[in-house]
Design a protein that fits this description.
The structure holds two protein chains of two kinds. Chain A contains nine helices and 14 strands. Chain A is an alpha/beta fold. Helices cover about 35% and strands about 25% of the residues of chain B. Chain B contains 13 helices and 18 strands. In chain B, a hairpin with a 4-residue loop joins strand 7 and strand 8. The longest helix of chain B is centred in the middle third of the chain and has 20 residues. The two termini of chain B are about 40 Å apart. The chains are: A alpha/beta, B alpha+beta.
Chain lengths: ~290, ~400
């Protein structure tokens, strides 16, 4: 078992023939991911990386039964790409694009709300189920197969956490990069819930950062669920000043309840094993998994 | 990106939001000319001179003053322009004032008492929708209102599919206790305000105070406007309003080099790929006994040119006593980054602070060897904790 993506996922790449799309689709295929085609409006009928190119997502669904998409479309057009995927019946929409205007994401998240799909991202590294599917831009070799799930707002910090977990002799079921924007599809709570409910996942690593309430919501859900699966948590940005955006558009302290300290306090109160040092994530996982 | 009050008001006005009128001036003579023109256009007798800087609480620092005649306009404008304005939101050194807004007096006597309200438009991150937040307690610090009298703050969330609906605008006006002409004017005001927010791709509007004048007009007396940086590509006219004098010069320079840099007060500079890892690295520096001097995300392509640019930015801060480079090589190979660090170091030739380089991920071993054999005064590390320990050692 795994969550969101596996070896049977039929994956298309939106923004397939662009430089980002081409490079990362190539890496995904090399990893063994089941990429069934791609979409670039106006280039339908061509073949790219030995896969068919379609003009629309609807065509890709019809012709190659795509059920998952990864979006590399530039920021100005990315929200439209998300809505197109949702309209075409794609079930898992993973959006890598960074820098989508908030106004566009308000529209897109409202549009997909009552449709049967799940958005991951935007501004995220994607999702990887080691040994089965890499639907993202992460370095595949860092993620060895195992029993620890990872949920994170950040890219390289996810790789760091996975690397630490693997160096403890453990591995990863699925790592979900949820993204660092103010509006994202799958929340920390939803991603944690998916992993807690996954029978193969024995522990969850939850990596958050300053800004917003997502980690607190996840912590409250975890406590209420009564789950016995241990969760290890880290929040980046304890030293970040209030009112300044730290790289990720959503990483900004707005009040007293979205600082790293406030989030960690809530997470601890909800039974999450919080580490203060980002160097101790792996060690803590090994300790709680026993 | 933040706008000045006068720019924010022009934006609002272009969408039909009534504003307190004013003319911006760069010096005392311009201020006098502006005041004369304003009297001709609006009939105002008195004038309000308002410092134009990107900081709230300007009145508390002496940056907003009433002038009752043209002599006072000249004196006050002369005092405010050029001053280092200290407010609760600035540093102790304050912010240099380069221009003032000469505004009409809108608190004139009339049939009813003027009333002040608070209104903002912002994103509710929890629901992914915009909301209008408003209060009867205008002209005050809204954080204080939220703490002491939270029942006096109202919110109205807007469905993005419909925009603000007439009943919602009426609800705002009712909750503010308005009736008659003022009620009607408020519904127009809030509707236009919301439209301005959405169509300008703003990320925050804060109007404090919104004024009901003694003749029942609703207007914005102040305007704090922040625009969504990611949407500026479709608002070239608004992007042109950026005032670089209001920003940290090192941050501006870093931005031009494509580096995401935030200046901080500490003593350990850092260079990291990825925002989350960069914040985590700052936290680790603190735990190692240092204080981060900056946030710096070099992004995905940490080649020699970028590393050198990053070095130069970090070293502009004289407080930096050590630099920690933390790169997790994924798609970018660590040996390339290591070579970049070595080349940049050699090119610069005069780096006098100790450097700790932690490279992890693809080809980390080769990278460590490259650094160790470079003959440069650079310490290498592969584990995160090892890097922290070395930072601690050089600070000791």
């Amino acid at each position: 078992m795994s969550v969101l993506v596996n070896k049977d996922s039929k994956i298309i790449v939106q923004g397939f023939t662009g430089s980002e799309g081409t490079f990362h689709a190539g890496q995904m295929i090399e990893y063994g991911t089941n990429v069934v085609g791609g979409v670039t409006p106006g280039k339908g009928g061509q073949t790219h990386l030995d896969k068919p190119v379609f003009n629309t997502v609807a065509e890709a669904v019809k012709e190659v039964q795509a059920d998952t998409t990864i979006i590399f479309v530039p920021p100005a057009f990315a929200a439209d790409a998300i809505m197109e995927a949702a309209d075409a019946g794609i079930k898992v929409i993973i959006t890598i694009t960074e820098g989508i205007p908030v106004g566009d994401m308000i529209k897109a998240s409202n549009y997909i709300k009552n449709r049967d799909c799940r958005l991951v991202g935007p501004n995220c590294p994607g999702v990887i189920t080691p040994g089965e599917a890499k639907v993202g831009i992460m370095p595949g070799f860092v993620f060895k197969k195992g029993k620890v799930g990872i949920v994170s707002k950040s890219g390289t910090l996810t790789y760091e956490a996975a690397d630490q977990v693997v160096k403890q002799g453990l591995g990863i079921t699925t790592a979900i990069g949820i993204g660092g924007d103010p509006i994202i599809g799958t929340t920390t709570k939803e991603a944690v819930e998916l992993l807690i409910n996954d029978p193969e996942t024995e522990a969850v690593v939850m990596i958050g950062e300053i800004g917003g309430q997502l980690e607190a919501d996840a912590a409250h859900w975890y406590k209420a669920s009564g789950s016995k699966k241990p969760v290890v948590g880290f929040i980046a940005g304890e030293t970040a000043p209030a009112g300044r955006t730290m790289g990720h558009a959503g990483a900004i302290v707005g009040g007293s309840d979205d600082t790293a300290q406030a989030k960690k306090k809530i997470m601890r109160a909800c039974g999450i094993h919080v580490v203060d040092s980002p160097a101790e994530i792996g060690k803590k996982v090994a300790e709680v998994i026993g | 990106m933040n706008l000045h009050e006068y720019q924010g008001k022009e934006l609002l006005s272009s969408f039909g939001v009534r504003i307190q009128r004013g003319i911006v001036a760069q010096n005392a003579d311009e201020a006098v000319a502006a005041a004369k023109k304003l009297t001709e256009d609006t009939g105002t007798g008195w004038h309000v001179i308002k410092a134009q800087v990107h900081a709230g609480g300007r009145g508390k620092g002496g940056g907003v003053k009433l002038a009752k005649n043209l002599d006072e306009v000249k004196t006050i404008a002369g005092q405010i322009i050029g001053m280092d304005l200290v407010t609760p939101q600035t540093s102790a050194e304050g912010k240099r004032v380069h221009q003032v807004l000469v505004a009409e007096d809108v608190y004139y006597p009339g049939d009813s008492e003027p009333e002040e309200y608070y209104m903002s438009v912002l994103l509710n991150r929890g629901t992914g929708r915009n909301m209008i937040m408003y209060s009867t307690e205008g002209g005050m610090d809204i954080e204080t209102v939220a703490e002491e009298t939270p029942h006096l703050i109202f919110t109205e969330e807007i469905d993005p599919a419909t925009g603000i609906l007439p009943f919602q605008a009426r609800k705002v006006a009712f909750n503010l206790g308005l009736s008659g002409a003022a009620f009607k004017d408020m519904t127009k005001f809030v509707t236009a305000l919301y439209r301005a927010y959405v169509e300008s791709d703003s990320s925050l509007f804060e109007i404090n105070p919104v004024l009901k004048t003694s003749d029942d007009k609703i207007m914005a007396v102040d305007a704090k406007v922040s625009l969504d940086d990611n949407a500026l590509f479709r608002h070239k006219d608004l992007a042109a309003l950026r005032d670089l004098r209001e920003e940290n010069p090192i941050e501006v320079e870093a931005g031009e080099l494509g580096l995401n840099y935030v200046d901080l007060d500490g003593n350990v500079g850092c260079m990291v790929n990825g925002a989350g890892l960069a914040m985590a690295t700052m936290d680790l520096i603190k735990q190692a006994g240092g204080e981060p001097a900056n946030f710096l995300d070099v992004g995905g392509t940490a080649d020699a040119a970028r590393v050198e640019a990053a070095f130069q930015i970090i070293l502009k801060d004289p407080a930096v006593k050590a630099i920690l480079i933390n790169i997790f090589g994924g798609i970018v190979r660590c040996d390339r980054v290591a070579q970049g660090v070595i080349d940049a170091y050699k090119n610069m030739g005069n780096i006098e602070v100790p450097i700790i380089v932690r490279l992890q991920g693809t080809n980390a071993d080769i990278a460590k060897e490259l650094i160790d054999n470079s003959g440069l005064d650079v310490m290498s590390a592969t584990e995160f904790q090892e890097a922290a320990d070395k930072v601690q050692k050089v600070l000791a």
